[in-house]
Design a protein that fits this description.
43% of the residues lie in helices and 16% in strands. The protein is of the alpha+beta class. The strands form two sheets. Strands 5-9-8-7-6 form a five-stranded antiparallel β-sheet. Strands 1-2-3-4 form a four-stranded antiparallel β-sheet. Strand 3 and strand 4 form a beta hairpin.
Length: 269
C-alpha cells in the first residue's frame, strides 16, 4: 500500500496519541518501520489486522547498504593524504576528518564513517562521493542554480519541489527559527544580494550553499533560492547535491517538529 492509501484510512485528526505531530508523519513512520500501524488508537482491530498484512515496509538497512556498498569499494583506491588539502579536510591518523555542518566525520579507506552524530544516508553518500571525486582548484566565487550544475537540469523540478519549496514554507512559517538553524549550523550573513535575508552555510568544506530569501509583500509571494558555487561539480555530482539538500530539509523539519506545532502539509512534503 502507498502512503496515501494508508493515510485515507486514518481519521486525519492529528490527535498525536501515537507520539507524532501529524497523521501523515505517522504514516511515514509506519512505512519506514519506525511505528506499527496498531499504534494508531483511532483504528479498529479489524482494520489494523488487514493493514498489517498489506503494508510493505522499507528495509532501511538494505537501502543503506545498496547505496553505500559501491562507494565503499571505490574508497579503496583513494589516497586520503593526497586529497585532504583539496577537500578542505585533515588527516586524523589513518582517517580523513571532514567537517559537515559543524560536526566532524572520520572516514577510512574502507568507507567506514564515524561521528558523534547519527550516521544518516544523506550524510554518508555525499561524504563518500565528495572524497572519491577528489576535489578541484578551489571555489570560483560565482553562484549558480541547481539546474546549472552538470546534468542538474534533469532533476531541477524535483529539486525545487522536494527541497526548495519545503524550505520556503519553513522560512515563511518559522522565520526566526529557520534562520537560527542556519546560523547554528555555521551559517553567516552575506551582503551584495537584493534578498531580505542572505546566508551561506557549508554542508561540506568546499561545497557552500547560499540561501536567499525574500519575504512576501503585497501581491507578491515569498521566494527562496538555493545557489551553489560553480565549482560544485568538481566536488559532488548533482544527485549528491540533491541528497545533501534533502537531508537538510529533513533535519530542519525534525528539529522544528520537536519544538513547534508543524503544519501537516509541511511534514507531508
Amino acid at each position: 500500500m502507498k502512503y496515501l492509501d494508508i493515510y485515507k484510512l486514518l481519521d486525519r485528526s492529528n490527535c498525536r496519541e501515537c507520539g507524532l505531530p501529524t497523521c501523515m508523519a505517522f504514516v511515514h513512520a509506519v512505512i519506514n518501520g519506525e511505528k506499527k500501524i496498531g499504534e494508531c488508537t483511532r483504528l479498529d482491530k479489524k482494520t489494523v489486522s488487514e493493514l498489517d498484512q498489506k503494508i510493505v515496509r522499507r528495509d532501511i538497512g538494505k537501502e543503506y547498504e545498496a547505496a553505500v556498498g559501491p562507494l565503499r569499494e571505490a574508497m579503496s583506491g583513494v589516497d586520503l593524504k593526497a586529497v585532504a588539502g583539496r577537500l578542505g579536510a585533515a588527516l586524523s591518523g589513518d582517517r580523513l576528518c571532514v567537517n559537515c555542518l559543524g560536526k566532524d566525520f572520520l572516514i577510512d579507506t574502507k568507507g567506514n564513517v564515524e561521528s558523534i552524530c547519527h550516521i544518516h544516508l544523506w550524510v554518508t553518500v555525499p561524504l563518500l562521493r565528495y572524497i572519491i571525486a577528489g576535489g578541484g582548484d578551489g571555489l570560483s566565487g560565482r553562484w549558480v542554480s541547481f539546474d546549472e550544475l552538470k546534468n542538474g537540469i534533469t532533476m531541477s523540478n524535483y529539486f525545487e519541489r522536494r527541497c526548495v519549496e519545503p524550505l520556503r514554507q519553513m522560512a515563511d512559517s518559522h522565520t526566526d527559527i529557520f534562520f537560527d538553524l542556519l546560523d547554528i549550523f555555521g551559517g553567516r550573513p552575506v551582503e551584495g544580494f537584493s534578498a531580505d535575508d542572505s546566508r551561506i552555510i557549508y554542508p561540506l568544506p568546499r561545497v557552500p550553499f547560499l540561501f536567499l530569501y525574500w519575504k512576501a509583500e503585497g501581491h507578491f509571494e515569498s521566494k527562496l533560492k538555493i545557489l551553489f558555487d560553480s565549482s560544485a561539480d568538481k566536488y559532488l555530482d548533482f544527485e549528491a547535491v540533491y541528497i545533501l539538500t534533502r537531508g537538510i530539509v529533513e533535519m530542519f523539519k525534525n528539529i522544528i517538529a520537536n519544538h513547534e506545532e508543524v503544519m501537516p502539509n509541511l511534514l507531508a512534503m
